[in-house]
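Reminder to self: tokens first, then the designed residues, so the page reads top to bottom the way the pipeline ran.
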């Protein structure tokens, strides 16, 4: 394995995503103190830079299909935020993207995106399907806490949902986002 980045002061790098431009963003949640988590940017030339300062426990992360926005869940605030990505990889101050009305106390975690830009967000009782404007367009109830989600299979039309001791599979009518290679 090749180590792309290391810092002894990081809490525990958790989730990551790569934009269509090749930059990598990853979360480093502060699960213990719930105050100093961050999102980092790893540029194509290997430079790592902290790019968020407003999330105590950033967790799941995904870039928009066009590589212009970054979506991040926060497990302490129990919300999802969106940031505009600048040409140098830095982020704007961001804003609230989605915070559902839910009786569930299950924290937001991982996420994925489909070919139309709809997001599939784990947490708060299951899988929230949210359009690029932050409006819920669907919900998949899951009987246990979901930790992550991804599209897969040959046609990229199957959702795989990971939970603590199970993995669920759901066939969909829409294809997950798969950047041209």
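Designed residues (181 positions):
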């Amino acid at each position: 394995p090749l180590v792309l980045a290391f810092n002894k002061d990081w809490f525990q790098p958790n989730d990551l995503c790569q934009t269509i431009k090749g930059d990598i963003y990853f979360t480093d949640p502060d699960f213990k103190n719930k105050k100093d988590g961050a999102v980092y940017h790893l540029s194509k030339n290997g430079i790592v830079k902290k790019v968020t300062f407003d999330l105590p426990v950033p967790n799941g992360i995904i870039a928009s299909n066009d590589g212009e926005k970054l979506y991040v869940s926060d497990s302490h605030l129990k919300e999802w935020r969106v940031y505009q990505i600048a040409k140098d990889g830095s982020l704007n101050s961001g804003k609230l993207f989605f915070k559902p009305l839910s009786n569930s106390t299950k924290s937001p975690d991982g996420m994925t995106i489909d070919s139309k830009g709809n997001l599939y967000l784990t947490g708060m009782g299951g899988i929230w399907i949210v359009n690029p404007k932050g409006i819920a367009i669907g919900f998949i109830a899951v009987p246990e806490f979901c930790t992550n989600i991804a599209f897969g299979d040959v046609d990229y039309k199957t959702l795989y949902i990971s939970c603590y001791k199970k993995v669920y599979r759901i066939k969909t009518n829409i294809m997950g986002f798969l950047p041209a290679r």
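The radius of gyration is 16 Å.
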